[in-house]
Amino acid sequence: MPRTLITGTVRSRCVHFGRRRKAGCTLVVTVFRALLALSVAGLLLTACGAASAPAGESQATAVSQAMPTAQGVSDTPVSLVSASSGPFAHVVATTGDTMSATRLVWAVVFHGTFNAPSCGPAGPGPHTCQSNTTMLVVLDYKTGAFLMGQTPAQVG
Predict the structure, then answer these.
(1) Sequence-distant (≥ 6) Cβ neighbours of residue 1 within 8 angstroms
(2) Which of 4, 18, 19, 136 is buried most deeply by CB count within 10 Å?
(3) What are the phi and psi torsion angles at 2 (to 5°)?
(4) 37/52 Cα distance (integer angstroms)
(5) How far apart are CA 155 and CA 151, in angstroms?
(6) What is the pTM of this model?
(7) How many Cβ atoms from other residues are within 10 Å of residue 113's Cβ?
């Protein structure tokens, strides 16, 4: 009966003293090597992907830069609702903008009392303007420069 050398690896379980490796062991070793190579490749790709993220303003900086814009048009103190970053088309739910859909932006939403810019056409009859309670401020991701404001906020 052949003796098996066992040291904890797949290959060592297939090596027998004084005999050639079994045919089934070649497949096991090949599969093991392929899985090991895929694992190493996955780790390398993950590390490279994290390192290639573009540098830009932090979330805290984006919020502090956007807040004066929102507060400037609110009748009450504003409070932060959310702040998210990503391509313009993914974080802002608007159509017809000339801004590039892939441009990286910060979309910062505030709660406050934002008066509507218009109450409708002039003429007889009552016109009631309702205040909007949310405002979206969009900033450039890298520089923090103001790009647009929108009330009520429409985020993607």
Answers:
(1) none
(2) 136
(3) -75, 145
(4) 23
(5) 11
(6) 0.59
(7) 14
